[in-house]
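Private note to self, pasted from the team thread so I don't lose it. Backbone tokens:
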């Protein structure tokens, strides 16, 4: 990549958009908010979008940071982001979703899982509520095993293994996801209580253990079909997810 001196006007704009979150080791850089109009069920809704980058080095001079990043191929690495709606930082109550990236479900609309449905439904629920945010966690593919390993796990699932067994046969634990970085970004953006949309008690526990004020949890079941029924059963029976919705009870428990 071509490395050039950063223009003063460019630097002025970006200084107002970049926030530094210092960690015990390294730092998180948060850029945003950026206006992002989204087609949500046929209606254009404008969200506020943030993206974050974790680095081992703490660079407080943003000009040096930008110049360094311009010579780094960030496209080879994954970065996470936040999609917020309404007065997320100041509203008394807000809905949040900690959503793990799912290449097959979110992008291609795969019905082997319910991830694509959960992503769009959580965005819809946030808009209906009036304020909230989706944290899109890019390093969580396949519950933390990565896309290539997930593809191998899918191959095993087509031969009779359930989700947990497939991961374990490949040498992984059932779920290796970590929410620490997302929690630090959430704390930077909001200090008031949040209601988390999830069926996974581990997410609630991670937020509460970090000191966040989690006032409630909303279930997020749906889009049950012949293609993901066993997958959803495994979530409940082996991964500890909470099956609360009437649809879930009738179809998969």
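Design output:
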């Amino acid at each position: 990549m071509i490395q050039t001196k950063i223009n003063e006007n460019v630097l002025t704009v970006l200084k107002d958009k970049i926030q530094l979150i210092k960690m015990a080791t390294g730092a998180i850089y948060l850029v945003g908010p950026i206006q992002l109009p989204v087609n949500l069920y046929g209606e254009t809704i404008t969200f506020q979008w943030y993206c974050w980058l974790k680095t081992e080095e703490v660079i407080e001079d943003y000009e040096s940071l930008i110049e360094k990043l311009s010579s780094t191929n960030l496209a080879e690495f994954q970065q996470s982001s936040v999609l917020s709606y309404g007065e997320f930082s100041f509203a008394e109550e807000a809905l949040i979703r900690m959503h793990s990236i799912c290449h097959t479900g979110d992008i291609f609309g795969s019905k082997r899982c319910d991830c694509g449905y959960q992503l769009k439904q959580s965005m819809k629920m946030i808009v209906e509520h009036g304020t909230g945010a989706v944290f899109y966690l890019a390093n969580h593919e396949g519950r933390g095993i990565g896309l290539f390993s997930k593809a191998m796990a899918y191959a095993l699932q087509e031969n009779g293994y359930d989700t947990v067994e497939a991961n374990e046969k490949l040498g992984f634990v059932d779920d290796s996801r970590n929410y620490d970085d997302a929690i630090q970004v959430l704390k930077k953006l909001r200090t008031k209580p949040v209601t988390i949309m999830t069926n996974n008690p581990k997410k609630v526990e991670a937020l509460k253990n970090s000191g966040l004020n989690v006032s409630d949890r909303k279930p997020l079941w749906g889009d049950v079909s012949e293609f993901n029924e066993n997958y959803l059963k495994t979530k409940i029976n082996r991964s500890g997810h909470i099956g609360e919705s009437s649809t879930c009870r009738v179809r998969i428990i």
